[in-house]
Each structure stands twice: as structure tokens, then as C-alpha cells.
Design a protein that fits this description.
The structure holds two protein chains of two kinds. Chain A is mainly α. Chain A is built from eleven helices and no strands. The longest helix of chain A has 22 residues. Classes of the chains: A mainly alpha, B mainly alpha. Chains A and B meet through helix 3, helix 4, helix 8, helix 9 and helix 11 of A and helix 1, helix 3 and helix 4 of B.
């Protein structure tokens, strides 16, 4: 849906926005506020942080749209700005991350420990929120937004291996936390 | 490999994403446990993509717009303010030199006071630059306060430009520079308060 929005977005409007036209910039905001907020909300822990990311993203769009060359979709450009802003916010914040659960023995348990543990049915959203900030960001950017490990590594200033291992670790945890109902038939 | 018989999570994800390591696909084809795990990973991604879209609880455009306009104004008055500072400093120097030539005390109360105010003004502008207010996210209330303060500073700078054409230092200059310092101080206060409240 988000890609479709980007494809049909009026190029003339983008051109006007690049001149600093506030009406055109508002139209850009209206077109993309929901996908930007959704991305930010899935990556950040709180709604307040996501709102700040939304505002930071569009302030950056207003400031930098002259530098947007039009080589990719405008949504792709705005999404990357939003992802960068969300990652910056995650770096700034001092949240408890899921690694703390490891220390409490809640997550990083052995296979045998897993078998002994009573699995609680956990909502996917709750499980996602319970992941560490980094793992959650990698899962969302890769599995939902379609970023490659190379792109995620670039955004995070990390290696491709880091992105891959974060994704694997996150899926291992989601498997532990969520009741697996088996393949759909 | 995770162990001698099964594939690791990373290998399964590589297979799921179309970048399989050699031998992984063959193993999964003949291993029910790994095939189930691969299916689970496909399902996980599908379930993540199917999560409901979150919508912003409030409209943030007004805050974005106010911040963008404030940046434009700031850019404009920045240049105007610097020009006014340079003009006034030159004028103060000329007045002081002229007074010296005429055998009067080189520094009068007005020029001395003016020099102090101009220095304070420059220090506050340096503080603002150090805070980097362009990158700050402001809530609507703070953004409005910033816009109002910047508007007043822009008016002061315009007035300074007018009185600066006078060949002597008029008393109004001192008042204007005093106001400019107070407004800049308030502007720094808004940004510092906001920065502190978000924990930077």
C-alpha cells in the first residue's frame, strides 16, 4: 500500500516541495504521515518517541528535500530518513532491552530449559515490543520494510553479519515466546 | 550448522530470503523439523506484515511547519543580526575615535555600555549555535515561543539598522541592544529547557 502511494504521488508536487512550497510540503506530510509513524512506532518503544520521530523526519524532509534527486521513489527516500531518525532515537534512549531478560533467565535459556518452560501465549505485538531495540529494528526493517542486510548495516553503521545475527537471534526469541501453531493447511 | 544434524536459524533465514548457503536447501528438503522451522519463519514474516497499521494520535504538521518557518526566520535574522552587530561595532569605533580626536574622553558611558551589550549578544548567539536549535524537535508551545522571540529579534535588528544610520550613538541604541540581549537570553532558555526535558 505504501509503495503504491509513492508510485502515484504527483511528481509535480514533489518538484514544488523542493522549492520550499509549504502547501506541497504539507501534501507530502499528509501522504506519508501514517507509514512514517507506523515505521517509527514499530521501531520505537513508546508512542511519544514515534511522534517525535515523525516530526523529526518531516522537519528533515522540509530541510533536505532539495537534495532529493528523484532517483528512487519519494517514499523510499522519506522512509530511509524516518528509519535513520528512529535508529538515532533508539541510540539516544536508555531503555531496558531484552538482553536484561537474558540476565534474568527469561530468554537466553538452553534448548532443554525451553522444553521445561511453560509457554505462555504471547501476542506478536507484545513479543515484538519485548525484543531489544536493535533486534526489533532489524526484524521490522528486514521482514516488513524489505531492507536488505547490506542496507540495514549501512543505516546502523554495523556489519552485514551483525544484521544477520540480530535477525536470527530475534527470530529465535520470537519462536520461544510465541506458540507455534504449525504450517497452515 | 546449529548442530551436526540441523540447520541454524541464520541458515534458514538465508534460505527463506533467497540467499541459501550450499547444502541447506537439500537438508531442509529431507528434514521435517527444519522444514517446519522454515515454514514458521515464512509465517512469522507474514504475520509481522499483517500487523495493524499504527496511526499518529495527533497532527504534527503544525509543529513541523512552525519549526520550518522558525528556521527560515532564524536564517534571515541571523544574517541581518550579524550585519547590525558589525554596523554598530563600526559606529561605536568611529564615535570613540572622533571623540578622542576632539579631546573628549574616548569612551563615553553609552559606548561602553553598548560594547558590553554587543559582546553579550555575540556570546548568546554563540550559545545558540552550540545548542544547534535547528536540529531540535519542539512541541507546538515551544515552537510558538521560539517563533515569537525570533520575530521580536528580527524587529529589533531592523530598528537597529535604522538608528545605526545616525552619525552619533542615540540613546535608543542602548535600549535596543539591551532588548536584543534579553530576547536572545530567553531564546537560549527555551532551547535549553527543551533539551533538558528530552534528556539530551
Amino acid at each position: 500500500m505504501q509503495t503504491a502511494v509513492a508510485e502515484v504521488f504527483d511528481e509535480a508536487l514533489v518538484a514544488r516541495a523542493r522549492t520550499g512550497d509549504l502547501e506541497a510540503l504539507e501534501a507530502l506530510y499528509r501522504a506519508f504521515e501514517v507509514p512514517v509513524y507506523n515505521l517509527a512506532r514499530r521501531m520505537c518503544r513508546t508512542a511519544e518517541d514515534a511522534e517525535d520521530v515523525l516530526q523529526e523526519t518531516f522537519l528533515e524532509v522540509v530541510r533536505s528535500i532539495k537534495r532529493y534527486r528523484g532517483d528512487g521513489s519519494v517514499w523510499g527516500w522519506i522512509r530511509t530518513v524516518a528509519a535513520s531518525k528512529a535508529l538515532m532515537r533508539l541510540r539516544r534512549e536508555k531503555y531496558r532491552n531484552a538482553d536484561e531478560y537474558d540476565e534474568q533467565g527469561g530468554v537466553g535459556v538452553s534448548a532443554s530449559g525451553r522444553a521445561d518452560r511453560v509457554h505462555e501465549r504471547m501476542d506478536l505485538e507484545v513479543a515484538l515490543a519485548r525484543l531489544s531495540d536493535t533486534a526489533r529494528a532489524v526484524v521490522w526493517l528486514h521482514d516488513v520494510e524489505g531492507y536488505t542486510h547490506e542496507e540495514i548495516a549501512g543505516l546502523m553503521g554495523k556489519t552485514v553479519s551483525f544484521s544477520k545475527s540480530q535477525l536470527a537471534r530475534a527470530h529465535a526469541r520470537l519462536r520461544d515466546w510465541l506458540v507455534w501453531e504449525g504450517p497452515e493447511r | 550448522m546449529k548442530d551436526a544434524t540441523h540447520t541454524s536459524m541464520e541458515q534458514l533465514l538465508g534460505l527463506r530470503d533467497g540467499e541459501p548457503e550450499a547444502g541447506v536447501a537439500d537438508h531442509v528438503a529431507g528434514c521435517e523439523q527444519c522444514a517446519n522451522e522454515l515454514e514458521r519463519l515464512h509465517q512469522s514474516a507474514a504475520r509481522l506484515r499483517a500487523l495493524p497499521v499504527r496511526r499518529p494520535p495527533r497532527d504534527r504538521w503544525s509543529a513541523v511547519r512552525a519549526a520550518a518557518l522558525a528556521e527560515r526566520r532564524r536564517r534571515n535574522w541571523w544574517y541581518a543580526g550579524r550585519a547590525a552587530v558589525a554596523f554598530a561595532a563600526t559606529l561605536a569605533l568611529v564615535v570613540a575615535v572622533r571623540a578622542g580626536r576632539e579631546g573628549e574622553p574616548p569612551i563615553t558611558d553609552s559606548t561602553g555600555e553598548l560594547a558590553v551589550l554587543m559582546e553579550q549578544s555575540q556570546e548568546l548567539e554563540a550559545t545558540l549555535r552550540a545548542i544547534g536549535p535547528d536540529g531540535r524537535v519542539l512541541n507546538g508551545r515551544a515552537a510558538n515561543a521560539v517563533v515569537q522571540l525570533e520575530d521580536q529579534i528580527a524587529w529589533i535588528d531592523a530598528r537597529l539598522g535604522e538608528v545605526g544610520r545616525s552619525p552619533t550613538i542615540v540613546p535608543e541604541s542602548v535600549d535596543l541592544w539591551q532588548q536584543r540581549v534579553e530576547l536572545l537570553d530567553a531564546l537560549v532558555g527555551v532551547h535549553v529547557t527543551r533539551a533538558a526535558s528530552v534528556g539530551f
